What does this fold into?
Amino acid sequence: MKLRMLNGAHSTMAYLGYLSGYQYVLEAIADTGIHKLIHGLMTDEAMPTLPMARPVLDAYRDQLLARFANPALKHRTWQIAMDGTQKLPQRLLGTIRDRLEKGQSIQLLALGVAAWMRYVTGIDEQGQPIDVKDPHSGRLRTIAEAAGRDAEALAKGLLAMQDVFGTDLPANPAFTCPVVKHLKSLLESGAKATIAKVAG
It folds into this structure.
């Protein structure tokens, strides 16, 4: 529950929140689009992969949403966004694999992955540098610089990191297609417009 709901939501919110211009998680979750997206990610995509009873999961989700909005908890989006190559496999990719195995949608989870890809380009939506803290920051920068603003090239380069994505996900169009689609939207339209489109 913690990895897939708390941590998965936290990472997704950190990347999308930072790209949207929010310094803190409490600011990000106050954004109607992000709130709707995170609620949907936990309810529709993460919770069905967990064996706990639905009332338990509903209560945990509601606790998390309240915690994210707590003004006493000043969690920085930049800090949570650190070390993405180490965090993605446990926080998002395990849930994605379980859902793909059952032929289920990963639209919201795929946006979390795409937001990480957009974030590690190292340039924000105002053209300012992002201080990407990651054990593979040099490798990420090389991939991003080679790809430029080409979403397909950027996704292909990052997905080639087998220590993060393995060999199964990069070969599965059910994963790569939504990731590239979201990444293209993030690069061309920005985080807020992409969130509005995906969250509905």
